[in-house]
Amino acid sequence: MEKRWTICNDDEETTAALQKALNIHPVLCKLLCQRGITDFDSAKNFFRPQLSQLHDPWLMKDMHKAVDRILLAFEKKEKILVFGDYDVDGTTSVAAMYSFLKKFYNELDFYIPHRYREGYGVSKAGIEYAIENGFTLIISLDCGIKSVELISYAKEKGIDFVVCDHHLPDDQLPPAVALLNPKQPDCNYPYKELCGCGVGFKLMTALAEKMNLPPESVYGYLDLVATAIAADIVPMTGENRILAFHGLKKANENPNNGIRALGQLSGLHKELLIHNLVFMIAPRVNAAGRMDDARKAVQMFVAPNYEEALHYAQMLHSDNTDRKEADITITREALALIAGNEEWLNRKSTVLFQEHWHKGVVGIVASRLIEHYHRPTIILTRSGEYAAGSARSVPGFNLYEAVHACREHLLGYGGHFAAAGMTLEIEKVDAFRNKFEEVIAATMPPHLTTPEIPIDSEISFKDITPAFYNILCQMEPFGPENVRPSFVVRKAIDSGFSKIVKEEHLRFSLRQNGVTLTGIGFGMANKYPLLSKYVDIVFKIDENEWNGQKSLQMKVIDVRASE
User: Fold this and answer.
1) Rounded to whole angstroms, how far apart are CA atoms 373 and 228?
2) In a 3-state reduction of DSSP, which class is residue 201?
3) pTM score, two decimals?
4) Which domains does the chain show, CATH number per domain?
5) pLDDT digits (tens, 9 = 90+) for 463-491
6) Which of 156, 268, 357, 394 sees the fewest Cβ atoms within 10 Å?
């Protein structure tokens, strides 16, 4: 599939001024300016984030109410239930809050709803559990802001709610004792992009302050907060960057037993970086909820010793193996369905339904199909009497609006710009498929049908030195709005040593102006004939270690013939 290469704009004047202030390579200054870092002070804060720069938790609307209600529960010996969602953000939030409270309060339990029996967020079953077991305060994390009816029901039954959430609130808010969510229009908290675990962390910070506990009593959970930030794909800016930076430090120096156990099972032997949390830790935690019950993810994070954490981590690891097998099988079946239907091949969207597909991986499969066909995709399976599934979008297209436009065929739906979920009657799947195609064909701009590769800067091979790479690494932690930079090099030529490896990958060895650099392009064997002439190449810079020797290499994203 041809891809669009888009090079980021450069404000030459600002870049030049920053280069004068920092005296580092102009390309690095360009990268910093693209991220809003334009002077010495902002660069210092970016490269050396301090926990002292975190905002005062009391700036968050309802924080005083939340802390007072929890302290009242301590005083009256009430039973407190810590409630959270089944994904990484939810389970880390619950583990952090539960472990923190458990240090000085015993009338405590936690609850994670079952993905398939109870669905997302605050559940009726969870409230019934609280009623039956005499809980009178629920602290909900990563959910609750939209649970108007259920929190009203809990209130009728004598149960108060303190809600910690980061999802966009609706006009009508639930009748909780306190609603902690910086996205509320009347909340003056300066940073709006915290994840659910981040909001929970601010509540813990305020509680610690009120109880005269040292800040370190809360900093011990920063590795869990960093895991949630990485997995929930929130912007890696402001407070998120400070929390993730220090959370990674904690994860490398003195990790939570669960993170250490999952790192061990993932075969991680080097320093833990954000991408390890995203690709090694997060999928195993998420797999628990996808394939079985996410409660064991919390049990792993709160385990008092490594052996117990490892016991639960092995269960998560096993769930993840099952998840991968289901994912591979269903993706293969889905691709075969499209390939066998000429009309579907030429559509602007994909909607597939098979009764036997596993509900836990339909969203992942939708993302896999986008890698092949680059168009909005919905994967449906049978759920009880109905069809239910997940939708994923291509970058830049508002999927939620497209699903909303098909609402006459749906029983229920929800989601946001890039992803959505829906339920419908099985006999309406064909009508829904046709309507969705009609909407996509009418509303998706033509340029979005071609995948885009954003490129931070053009560069020469001679610029890529250990000193340059060292400063690049200090831009960690990477994430949305601070992604690992991509570069383009023009007019490079094969050194004579490029070759195909394992039949599908391409080992590059390219030369530009007398400087040679090697690299790997996964799945790029078909690009080998291009190397007979000059090529332009897009890549990220990586470090390769072989026999104790370190060298810089390219992790190739795309290659094409030079103009």
Assistant:
1) 30
2) helix
3) 0.92
4) 57-252 (3.90.1640.30), 340-449 (3.10.310.30), 453-561 (2.40.50.460)
5) 999 999 999 999 999 999 999 999 999 99
6) 156
